[in-house]
Specification:
The chain is an alpha/beta fold. Helix content is about 40%, strand content about 15%.
Amino acid sequence: MSARRPATMRDVALAAGVSPKTVSNVVNGYVHVRAETRERVQRVVDELGYRPQAAGRQLRRGRSGLVALAVPGIDMPYFADLARHLVTAARAHDLTVLVEQTDGLLEREREAADGFGVRFVDGLVLSPLAMAEEELTAPRHDTALVLLGEHAAHAAVDRVGIDSVDVACTATRHLLAGGRRRVAMVGAKTERPASVAEQRQLGWASALQEAGLRAEPGLARPVPDWTREDGEAATDALLAEHPDVDAVFASNDVLALGALRSLRRHGRSVPDDVAVVGVDDLPEAAYSAPTLTTVAIDRAFVAAAALDLLTSRLDDADLPPRTAVAPHRLVVRESAP
């Protein structure tokens, strides 16, 4: 038995006794249709299960209904959760999200900014690590662009940022308020430009200086990347050189989880011997052992703000560049009560 053929606009028009043009006017929400005609057509649409071809409708309006999210790694928990929030926010705008991984490589970021070689997305939400400010600012056809993060902070482009200096200050002040005096940082980066890492290191150092403590260079541990393995290795090196450390501020929760593993291997009790604070409040933070104190970044806000900036830019390309800053808050758990 063959599958039932999907209803067409012509089927609806014949059943409702109107022209296909009238059916089109009804499903596209045009106001100049008599109420009784609209009701009759809508009833037939529901009865036949007619579904307008969204792609054709959107293209007639000059838009595809697609936006892209390009991030360094979709396997990074922060970006995975951000993508989830962005998909949810996009549904409210009747948009579909495409996700691309750039690995923080210049050529892949350029491909994303140029429309992935397809050039049919309406807008791009990009978390760049490598593209220069002048490239990000350069106009590129009619694709709206919103940046995430602090890279190329002076680029005249719509952006959703995070106050990473204050994030790090918040975390470090909490450790200091708990009586810690040898507070290390895990998560400095040296291999490529890393504005977020630099700002979090600045916030850590500023909070120490406020407390009359010196931000010793050896206490800021560099990592190749922000992974569990890097967090563990950096903490191993830290304990070997500075065994008197009594607290660790990790630039993100993933690094903090690696730090917890290192401390456990070295027989250090958390938080009795060493307190640990991360950043992001990933779902995993509430299930680690011990549970992780962290500075939560409002990823739902980041996603909603990015979509609001993107859609308003599509409606008015002449708007001045705008910046939204995501809220953050301290979440106290067992690793640093």
